[in-house]
Design goal:
By secondary structure, this protein is of the alpha/beta class. It has helices at 7-15, 19-28, 35-41, 75-90, 113-121, 137-149, and strands spanning 46-55, 59-61, 63-64, 71-72, 98-103, 106-111, 126-134. α2 runs antiparallel to α3 (35-41) and α4 crosses α5 (113-121).
Length: 150
């Protein structure tokens, strides 16, 4: 199966039981450009679910122009990237799913903060995402949350 940095490819990998492999390839690619996150995910066994429709209103960002955010971004750079994604989507483009950690019932966007803002600006209620959790107690809680909420 050939990797591509888009939703269709993520779905193909998930269908073959290789979603974790797609996540790693995406994060290490030019499109994903998030090698530190990829390396962090490899530190422990992880469980991945998706891609699935996630409610935008429940997603919490970890990167952006807000002053109190975990990974601050330059406001103009962030805005330029969001605007480019809005235009891409308006022209029929397909973005990769966002990658979201579920912990304590909170959905933290680890990769895809620009995409979430772009979808929100376009008036979407949901976006495609991949949920992940550390294997064990955390992943069991994730599975229970998905069954109850989604």
């Amino acid at each position: 199966m050939e990797y591509q940095g888009n939703l269709s490819s993520a779905r193909d990998f998930a269908g073959q039981g290789n979603l974790g492999e797609w996540v790693q390839q995406y994060l290490c690619s030019e499109e994903g450009h998030n090698l530190p996150f990829a390396q962090g995910l490899r530190q422990e066994p992880r469980v991945y679910l998706g891609p699935m429709a996630l409610p935008l209103e429940r997603l919490e960002g970890c990167s952006g122009p807000e002053p109190d955010i975990q990974f601050p971004a330059y406001p103009q750079d962030f805005e330029n990237r969001v605007q480019a994604l809005v235009e891409f989507l308006e022209n029929g483009g397909e973005l990769p799913p966002v990658i979201v950690n579920i912990t304590g019932g909170r959905l933290i966007v680890n990769d895809g903060n620009h995409r979430v803002v772009a979808y929100t600006r376009l008036g979407a209620a949901k976006c495609q995402g991949i949920l992940w959790a550390t294997a064990g107690e955390e992943s069991e809680a994730m599975l229970a949350w998905v069954e109850k909420v989604l």
